[in-house]
Amino acid sequence: MTDTVFENATVEESALPTAADLSFEGLAPTYARTLIIEWLIFWSFFAAISIGINFIPKVEMWLFKHWWVYLPLIAVIGSVFIWAPAVTKARGFAVRERDIHYKAGIFWRKTVSLPYNRIQHVELESGPLERFFKLNTLKFFTAGGYKADMKIPALQFERASKLRTYVVKMAAVIEDTSDDSGAATADQSSINSDGDA
To answer: Is the pTM of this model over 0.85?
Structure first.
């Protein structure tokens, strides 16, 4: 039986892969609509409060009696229709043989990377608004965590199911390979120890 030689060669910085090497897949186009509706509901709540204050008896709110006070709120609500498509375009995911990546952010950008061998389970979730647009969110959990380490929103059910099946399968394959490698290393160490004795 051949000895297993441990190698840990130095990797030059110029040889490291860059973020540009990742090919990100976009989310469902209808995701922008869900964001618009969610944000309109949120800001409409504040608009209703502001308008409702004027109808409360014996409450002197001179500020809210001027139409220009509502301009910032109108501007925010109007910007939702520009912001939502931009947010949708800025988000995406990339699948590789040993890990999965998710990017988000327009001004403050971030990319989350998750190796398959750290993934314990994957959940498929959809809220009322997501179900209306036939979208789902994939949530990835690692060991010891009660909160999802990665979320990929706005996936059609077929696409989400296919991705979930692939990730779970690859996580199991990599885990089995790691176990086999660990067992082989342990057996080799035992043989070497017996030979030295």
So the answer is: no
